[in-house]
What does this fold into?
Amino acid sequence: MSQCRVKLLHLSGAALMIGLRVLAALAVLIPSISAVALAAGGGALAGETGHSQSIASPPPPQDGVNLVPLSEEDETSSKQSGCMFLFSVSPKDYVQLIDGELMFRTLSGLHVCHIANADAFMDARESAVCEGISLKLRRTGRIQHHPASDSSTGPAQLLIGQGGVSRTLRGTWGVAC
It folds into this structure.
């Protein structure tokens, strides 16, 4: 993302969310992007046991933190403006970050925190911690830059940890400004 630094635009979260969803839809239509996502393991959810399952269903309840998809109401509730980061397991968004406001949902409810290291988290250099839950992004493939929409996307894994137990979600990250 450091190559993609731009001025923050005061666009609504809903407009940015729509832009990222359009990019995700394009990734399905463009074979080279889809191949990168599949090669990186996109579309699988792996827990501590290493078992994989289809991600069409939410993660099964078990020890550790289980993220559940953000609702449209969650995603549009942010009062922040600027560049939007999303981590998605197509077609659902699990993590949203706008101007330092980190948002994700677990089985226990919605978590919203302001984090100081937003850029380092989006660049996959540092973990973000919110209410005792640690999120760490790991990029797993080629980054696609989309100059016309001032955005970037790519395959990634999201490590979610709490109390010494962790899980990994495999999906796609995206940033739109």
The chain has one domain: 8-45+64-176. Residues 1-20, 22-62 have pLDDT under 50 and may be disordered. The first strand starts at residue 44 and ends at 46. The first helix runs from residue 13 to 29.
